[in-house]
User: What shape does this take?
Amino acid sequence: METISFITSNLGLIAHLLGQHLYIVFMAVGLAILTGVPLGIFVSQHPRPGRWVLTFAAMLMTIPSAALFGLMIPLLSIWGQGIGMVPAIIALFLYSQLPIIRNTHTAISNVEPSLREAARGMGMSSWQRLWKVELPLAMPLIMAGVRVATVINIGIAAIAAYIGAGGLGSLIVRGIAQSDTRQLIAGAILISVIAVIADYALALLQRALTPKGVIKLNNLSMKEATS
Amino acid sequence: MIQIDNLNKKFGSITAVENVSFTVPEGKICVLLGPSGCGKTTTLKMINRLIPPTSGRVLIGGRDTAELDTVTLRRSIGYVIQQVGLFPNMTVEDNICVVPDLLGWDKVKSRKRAAELLEVVALEPSKFAKRYPCELSGGQQQRIGVARALAADPPVMLMDEPFGAIDPINRDAIQDEFMRIQRQVGKTVLFVSHDIDEAVKMADCVALFNAGQVEQFGTPDDLLARPVSDFVANFMGGDRIMKRLRLLQAADIACPTPPQELLQVVGDQPGAASWNAITVLPSDDLRQVLCQLLGQGREWAVCKDAHGQFIGYVHQRDILARLIDNTAAVA
Assistant: This one.
């Protein structure tokens, strides 16, 4: 009850923090799509150097978030950006790489070889093949990677409050510092709720971006698998 | 016309194709036949350069294909594969229009062309144009595959075991259909197959491959009646003499003179007596006719067209004579 009354009496503050939180997460994921998808394509086309890309992205994922945020401070201080939103966005951007690169890579490599052969045999250049065949077919899996990255980042972004990035994590940080359970719980609940909402919204986007023929195909193979 | 001139392909130290040369005349179907791993598919793929040849030339219409860039070359050659390879993200119509779209045709024109081609492959355009590949049966998918290869009206078609994954009953139907389409469009077709019956049925000429080389090149009848080696004879099968009969139709040997046995009963009146006789169509192949005669213990049958018009008598004796006659080329 106390938590609810805290939320209702601080709507302005919460809206502000929510805005910051979403800004950090979507900036990071947006930038990560711009790099992760091309890297994933690169990995699927050049498996040997590509393995190193995947290993490196996986290594980034293993760095504890507190440590990564801590690492950002001295590094980015050089440009006077040691604390605040910039290091938070960069850290989350790095965390997003693995799910996006890996899913793009898996999706492109899973395109049936016969489709690739038909595309080549009919005279598509490798770009046309990518654009007209491989990416549309890979879309559901790439979007699944984006969803994973987004949900992970919404959680990790809470910790970014410690380096002054703001966001809903501030409620948790303050709640701990002031032994104020209301703020702590409000922060935690709100973060979970937006994670669930964002995942659902992206699921809708995933469906919208998936070609209709692929949705039908997937429904069909689902039916076969369950019957 | 496709001329294949001394084509070779080595993968590392393995020779996949060795000194292959043959010419396929304009508008003919040439079947590349042979056991798996004999180099027939490699040869086919060297024509549209999906596999670059180690040495040798391929000329299409007298032009060396090495002079064209691969993308231009491939857009001018129809390509059909066993797995069909329809793009699941595109509608049937968009699949058919892949090459026209690559060539930058006007959308209205290419979609009209797609509808035409759906008619050609006997699929109702209004029903199928907007469907997706996953909503079609295997046979329907391969019809679309053929339509897609025909879309930009290429003079040459390459077909890599196109009907190999279709069940036998539908395969027979789609083969017949392809032959009907071919009579209409007259493409120069190279067709990879390991199925002798398919080769005998469809080919104007056959290149029989063995271990990367062409063992024999000739008409199906050449290979069946005059194999140049034991390999060819074995590959064509112990019943190859019988297979020759598939190359002939009842109309080819139907003769208006009634057989002796019949004359004794009804006198000299051609076509008068068809009572109680077996009737065959002019388009029935002789293997079918002979089976009917043997099965019912008859010496002869009456050949009538679909309208019941009398064509002639087909006699067992004449069919058998064709088997023994090893030198006469089949028309």
